[in-house]
Amino acid sequence: MAQAEAEVPNFRTKIRPLLIAGVALFIFIEIVALSPSQLEQSRDTTSIPPEVLINDSGFGLATGIPRDRVPDYSIDQFHYVSISNGEKQWKLVAEKAFMYNKEKLVHAVNVTASLFDDDKITVVKGKEAKYFMDQKDLELFGSVAAKFPDGFESFSEYMRYQPEQRKVQVPTTHAVEGRGAEEEGQILSFKSFGMDFSMASSEVILPKSAHVVMARRKPKDATTAGVADQTVIESDHCVIDRVNR
Questions:
Q1: Which residues touch 148 (CB under 8 Å, ≥6 apart)?
Q2: Domain of residue 175, residue span
Q3: Distance CA 185, CA 221 (A)
Q4: Which of 102-106, 158-162, 183-187, 208-212 shows the lowest per-residue confidence on average (mean pLDDT)?
Q5: pLDDT over 70, % of the chain
Q6: Residue 2: its pLDDT value, please?
Q7: CA angle 128, 131, 133 (to 5 degrees)
Q8: Helix, strand, or coil (residue 243)
Q9: How far apart are the C-alpha atoms of 10 and 129, rounded to whole Å?
Q10: Cα–Cα distance between 189 and 184 in angstroms, integer?
């Protein structure tokens, strides 16, 4: 009888380490099953494709922007000045800008550009803009409105500024409208497909389907009694000289 009682504590002593080992193994399995890596893998399987995020941004007017991936980084309240040989060429201010390092491309939204020509400044506003960091040309997209130093204005859906040539260009694939400030009682307005403006010569070239109207605003007097209220010009190639009008 004494021998049987002695064997009971001995059995308890042997089984206790097994119970402790079992509990430890269970805790280890739970930790592994709920580890951060497992949770991260679970999240990765339901991640949103980059193109969905990009398309949801609401900005898709600019051409040549990578649509299959998110930008490398973005900047709020973006400011940039393009300088060549110590002289300012243009300045871009945007609500937000996106950088693509591989293409050396900057895509900006809700933009205002200042185009510098000596001491004169042309101000252009648009929905989007883009430029390449290793180039100087600036492109603007969407409701592009430009106001030149002499009050001349143009409106289009696209515009390109080439600072090396000091030219503002709208290709013939885009409609453009414009108007000048009132001078000596007359106001000039036009519609065309395409526009080339040379800052060096102050000439505006309307290369296709130009419709130009010169309207008189002042009441007629004795000197203008025989002058029509409007002069209309229809042409496939029209040149407007902003100096010798």
A1: 122, 154, 197, 242
A2: 50-241
A3: 12
A4: 183-187
A5: 70
A6: 47
A7: 145
A8: coil
A9: 84
A10: 15
Residue for token pair 């002695």: 6
Give me the amino acid identity at 199. M
Q: How far apart (Å, rounded) are the C-alpha atoms in residues 130 and 139?
A: 5
Q: Do 210 and 233 contact (CB within 8 A), yes or no? A: yes
**3 state SS of 42:** helix
Is 8 part of a structural domain of the chain? Answer: no
| pLDDT (tens digit per residue) in 128-153 | 999 999 999 999 999 999 999 888 99
Q: What is the pLDDT of residue 230?
A: 85
Q: Structurally, how many domains does the chain consist of?
A: 1
CATH of the domain at 230: 2.60.450.10
Give CA–CA dist 60/80, Å, rounded: 22
Block residue for tokens 């000091």: 166
d(CA 70, CA 102): 12
Asked whether residue 19 is assigned to any structural domain, the reply reads no
Say if 30 falls within a structural domain.
Answer: no
